[in-house]
Amino acid sequence: MDIFKRNSAIVLGLFLMLNFGCQNKLVYSTKSIDNVSKQTTLVLYSSFKDVNRISILVKGYIDGDATILIKVNNSYKQEYAISKGNVELLIDCDWYEDECIVEYWPKGVISGELAIGYCFR
Fold first, then answer.
1. What's the rounded Cα separation, in Å, for the pair 88 and 109?
2. DSSP 3-state assignment of 23?
3. Of 69, 76, 78, 83, which has the most beta carbons under 10 Å away?
4. Nearest-10 Cα torsion for 83, 37, 12, 79
5. For the segment 39-79, what is each residue's pLDDT rounded down to a tens digit?
6. Which helix or strand (DSSP H or E) is residue 105 part of?
């Protein structure tokens, strides 16, 4: 794990735990998008069933634009545009499932790094 990913994981963890109360159910996790130039699907899981909210933080840098799709039960729920440069996208919304599908769709991205921190509550 390179320094960017390790530092991003630490920053994401502290940010989510301190600001969104994730420490009381201890379900904070991180994932990274290994190749930002390719479409990626990540499945985020909760360790408990009584979910009513999700917080997702996408952080890093990309040299092109991208779209993040959030899906529940493989059905489209929300879409977020990411512009090239430094990325810090916070998604915080009502959520009632123990699984969340995150799709990353790059547009002209060749390089960069993105980490995703998430917390079900």
1. 16
2. helix
3. 69
4. 50
5. 999 999 998 888 999 999 999 999 999 999 999 987 888 99
6. strand 99-107
